Each structure stands twice: as C-alpha cells, then as structure tokens.
Amino acid sequence: MKLFAKLIAATAAIGMAGTAYAADMTLKFGHVGNPGSLFEASVNNFAECVNTSMDGKVEVQTFGSSQLGKDKELLQKLKLGQVDFALPSSVMSSVSDIFGIFEMPYIIRDRDHMRRVQDAMMDKFQSAAEAEGYHIVGLAENGFRHITNNVRPINVPADLDGIKLRTPNGVWRVKMFQEYGANPTPMAFSDVFTALQTGVMDGQENPYAQIASAKFQEVQKYLSITGHVYTPAYILASQKHFSALPEDVQAGLRECAAKQQDFTYEEAARLETELLDVIKAAGVEVNEADKDAFVEASKPIYEAFAAEVEGGQEMIDAVLGLASGS
Fold first, then answer.
1. What phi, psi does 275 have (nearest 5°)?
2. For residue 40, what pLDDT is reported?
3. Neighbouring-strand partners of residue 206
4. Contact, 297 vs 157, CB < 8 A?
C-alpha cells in the first residue's frame, strides 16, 4: 500500500510539473487580497481567462494575501521584473497625483459613472502611469468605502474627532480624515487586523468585501455606512516588461482584463448586500451616516486638490460632469 501511495504521489507530482511547464511563459500576479475577497475573485477571474483562452501561450499564477509583498513592495517588484502584475488601488495616488482624483470624497457616484470616467479619461491615467514606468492593463475595483471603529458610531464628521484610524498609503486619504477630525495613520493592509485587535488603531475604512474577508468584524464594534470614497483598482504591469511581450499576448491580456472588469462589477454589487449581512451577523452595530454632512465637510479637500495638483480643478470638473449619463 505504501508503494502504491508513493506511485500515486509521484504521478501527481509529474502532472503538476507538466501543468507548470505547459505554457510558453508564466506570469506572476501578486495582490494583497485575502481569501474570499473581491481582489481574490477578480484576480482569479483574470487568470482563468488568460489560462484558458490563449492556447497555452501564457499561464498566470496568482499569489494573494501579500505573499509576494505589500502594495508598495509589489510596485517596486513590478519594475524589477520579479512580479508581472499587481492590483493596487488607493496607493496609486502615491505613484502620481493624477490618481488622487479618486480620493476626492463622493466624486464617483456609481459604477456606471466610473465607466464613463474610464471611457473619457483613461488616456490621461495611462499616460500618468507610463510616466512612472507602469502600464494599466485594465481596471477592477476596491469598491465603496465605509468606516469601522471601536469608539462610537460615526454619524457626522465630528464623531471622528480623535479616533485613531488606519488608512491606505495615499496622501489625500490622510488629508481627508485629518479634515474630518480623525487621527489617520497609513498602514499596510496585512497589518490592520492586529492593529485593531491590540488597540493600536481604533478603526479603519474599507469596502465590505475587504472588511469581511479580513474578518475585521471580529475586532470592531461599529460600522458606519459612509460610502465616502469609491476606489478603482488597477491591473498593473511594468511598462518595460509589458511592452516586450508579443503583441498577440498583450492583446489577449487586455481582453481578459476587460472581461474581468465586467465580472468584478457584478460580483461587487452582489457582495455589497451579502457581506453587509455577514458583518451584522457578527454583532457589529451598523448605522447610516449623514452623507450630506460629510459632503459639506469635504469642500476643503477639493479646494486643496485644485490648488496643489496641476490641472486638478479641470479634472474635478470633468469627473463631476460625467456623473449624469445624459
């Protein structure tokens, strides 16, 4: 029986090796999403499309939960050729000020609005990425963000006064929560659970999909539905390494990225209902925040972006002008 088991194991190993070397090229996709997250679903959907549609030319291997690095490390590894794809979201505002437009509170109304912004302004975002050595293969999302904490329900910005709040690495998110009265601290996503559990941070802000998959509901008392920012995510590659790929491979990757975006938007909309129930079931107290009060308190952020970022006011006007489908 032992010999039979060894033969089975050896056969399985040969099969796995055959799979690993079947493709002409293997591309690594690293991301910070935990199992069950929207990031994981989006990346896996992209990889499955590539692996089944490109006639064995390319195999995309996925590595979640920050296995290949946190967001900033992944950005560096893209340029070094150690990783082929990453899925940054808020951290892109540290790559170029242009991406800070998506840090403006309530500037994106819904996913249809985001589609219109993408169609009208993608060349601008692509140019900004390429100027820093990156290439946007396609868009995913990190979704509409809400606040959790262990101090009190957040109804209006003043309720954030003094709360130690984890934010992603992005200058505009920090400025926004400083304006609201919180004490924001940028921190890598993989460190947040422990920071909340130990009281180093009182709270954090994320979409339901990130909150639930990271199990923040186990270490947070309050969820306040603010929807203060919608963050796109970017299937990002190195401009140098992506442009060196055969043209048909580039085209296939872009096509799968576009299909992934459709999948992600549908999955995200479904999870918004399903995961809110999961968070509530864990005993978290949920309240609807006064969004009008947050919008009013956000005016100085828009003014600062217009003053500090070249072309900032024009970008604000362009995005707001696309809010209606007419």
1. -80, -25
2. 97
3. 146
4. yes
**Per-residue pLDDT tens for 103-146?**
999 999 999 999 999 999 999 999 999 999 999 999 999 999 99
Give me the sign of the Cα torsion angle 227, 236, 114, 52.
Answer: negative
Q: Which of 214, 184, 186, 188 is nearest to 202 (CA)?
A: 184
At 5, the amino acid letter reads A
Would the pTM count as exceeding 0.85? Answer: yes
Q: What is the mean pLDDT of residues 35-57?
A: 96
Q: How far is CA 42 from CA 10, 38, 63, 126, in A?
A: 33, 6, 12, 20
Is the predicted pLDDT of residue 295 greater than 70, yes or no? yes
Which amino acid appears at position 33 of this protein? G
Residue 326 CA: distances (Å) to CA of 112, 321, 322: 12, 10, 8
Q: Which residues fall within 8 angstroms of residue 48, CB to CB, at 6 or more apart?
A: none
Measured CA to CA, the distance from residue 166 to residue 196 in angstroms comes to 9
Nearest to 233 by CA among 92, 85, 108: 92
- For position 326, what pLDDT does the model report? 56
- The Cα 206–Cα 16 span in angstroms is 37
What is the distance between the alpha carbons of residues 239 and 166, in angstroms, rounded to a whole number?
Answer: 31
Sign (positive or negative) of CA dihedral 141, 189, 167, 74: negative
Q: How far apart are CA 155 and CA 143, in angstroms?
A: 21
Q: Which domains does the chain have, with CATH numbers?
A: 2-321 (3.40.190.170)
